[in-house]
Amino acid sequence: MGQKLRLGMIGGGKGAFIGAIHRIAAQIDGEYELVCGAFSSNPDVSIQSGKDLGLDISRCYASFSELFEKEKQLPKNERMQVVSIVTPNHLHFEPAKLAMQNGFHVVLDKPMTFSLAEAKMLKQIAEETGQLLCLTHTYTGYPMVKEAKQQIAEGKLGEVRKVYVEYPQGWLSKREENGDNKQAAWRTDPSKSGIGGAIGDIGTHAFNLVEYVTGLKVTQINADINTVVEGRKLDDDVNVLLKFNNNASGVLFATQVAAGEENNIKIRVYGEKGGLEWQQNDANSLLMKSADQPFQILRTGSSYLRSFAKHNTRTPAGHPEGYLEAFANLYRNFALTIKAKLNQETPTPEMLDYTGIEDGVRGMAFIEQVIVSGQSDQKWTAFIV
């Protein structure tokens, strides 16, 4: 493990949902130490949140601009090295930009930015500064998702022909944004979320999962976008037909109005030799299907799994690892990559296995082009990044 990376945080203060998840994930493997933060746009809340987390009051900042200004002035062996940005979408680009320009690596909540234009600018800044960025597409962190990716890469299914991915939620089946639900309020507000509602919030997870697991790239889309709940300003239900760069086809749906559903993201991939299936509700299992053999259920922690699954598993078989551990795998792999870079070593493929800036740009392109496709009379739209 070695010396911990010094971590700062922007957002995630009192009353925030995802900030605590990030903090737990970052500290599971002992690779990070939280040393500073600007936890809220309200200066008083920000400083009090930092104090509640046990931070030195001198490093509880009133704004993210103050955080960068003062951290940069500290001796190199004291200042933060990585900043985790856990704010609403409209507050992703500016702090990520300032972080990289001031020499800090970035962990960023998805989707990467407010718009595709911002995503492309952030990519350019990363290339100019040499700073690294990890985008927290959590579901790629599960060991059996990684096993599925390696199985496909090794040709176990043969040529991929068909893909189905779904992400059903039900929490916005009513107008939750009219009450005290802060998560609903900003996620359904185009001034904070961007042009995509469900497609930006959970559709990007489904899109990222498909490209990660299959190793394929989407080349064409045909989208149907809906706003089911009356008066809502953004989409809450999306269906997308997909074409891939090997001529395979796919179906993606993301909805937040499936009353009674929680977060059971699910993917099925079929090739010429067989198929596989994974879902979050049984995250420790990977179902393998063969055209001429009985199906198999592969399990997390088993000795027969491949290197990426083993690298991202902490407990013996039969001890479930879940959402927090999947989140932690992204943080750990990112930390190991940074440490290898600091030591002038070459990171292993397992270390480099985290969602990066290229994926973030493609995610933003997906949001914008799904909206364009859904509003167009044209049947198919080329997916261009």
UniProtKB/TrEMBL annotation:
Residues 6-135 form the Gfo/Idh/MocA-like oxidoreductase N-terminal domain. SUPFAM superfamilies: Glyceraldehyde-3-phosphate dehydrogenase-like, C-terminal domain, NAD(P)-binding Rossmann-fold domains. Residues 146-277 form the GFO/IDH/MocA-like oxidoreductase domain. Pfam families: GFO_IDH_MocA (PF01408), GFO_IDH_MocA_C3 (PF22725). It comes from the Bacteria. Gene3D superfamilies: Dihydrodipicolinate Reductase, domain 2 (3.30.360.10), NAD(P)-binding Rossmann-like Domain (3.40.50.720). InterPro entries: Gfo/Idh/MocA-like_OxRdtase_N, Gfo/Idh/MocA_oxidoreduct, GFO_IDH_MocA-like_dom, NAD(P)-bd_dom_sf. This is Gfo/Idh/MocA family oxidoreductase.
